[in-house]
Amino acid sequence: MAAISLFLVLCLSVTFTPAIQQKVTNISLGSSLTPTSNISWMSPSGLFAFEFYPGVNGYYVGIFIARTPQKTVVWTTNRDKSPVSNNVVLNLTTDGRLVLQFSKGQSLYPGSQLFSSVSETNESMRRFHLKMQHNGNLVQYPTNTPESREYAYWQAETYGIGDNVTLNFDLDGHLYLLNSNGFNIKNVTVGGFPTEKTLYFMSVDIDGNFRLYSYKLDQNRAESVV
User: Which of 65-74, 138-147, 158-167 shows the lowest mean pLDDT across its residues?
Assistant: First the structure.
């Protein structure tokens, strides 16, 4: 464990100055974390902690060395993806799953990207990505190709709208683009799907397709494409 931790520290070497945290070592099923709760889930040794931490334009979830004035992050979930806002809740469900729940939806900001994986079991390589461009267009490209029209294999065709266009995701599965004035300029999905005991999430899949999924919280079954 020490060798693995040292390797991660050398690779990431991310530090931040924490706020005063409430440290919890006895973590019960049904517990939750939020970016603004200032609560850490501690390892039995007290050396490592698990919590939300601030990044650029949002928050990440990670494990860090807790016994230093400036905490050093040794592992981050989905570190290649956009950070989340402060309106999310990370739930440890009664059946032992960690579920990130969005209370008011999410946004993909100009310059931000979502990446696919090379396979369902290998998250380390990224073959495709979805980018919210500064010209207002939402575009998908193969990774490691120029981000120009001839390499795009899907786009929202909203180029020329200008900067500050965002891709927004509501709790009912509604995906849409807003311009700098807050007007809806394009619906990617219509939304209006049932929200009771159901979570929705978007993903760039291993085949390069951008899909919307639903997950039933009260059923032990795989997510389904909407």
Answer: 65-74
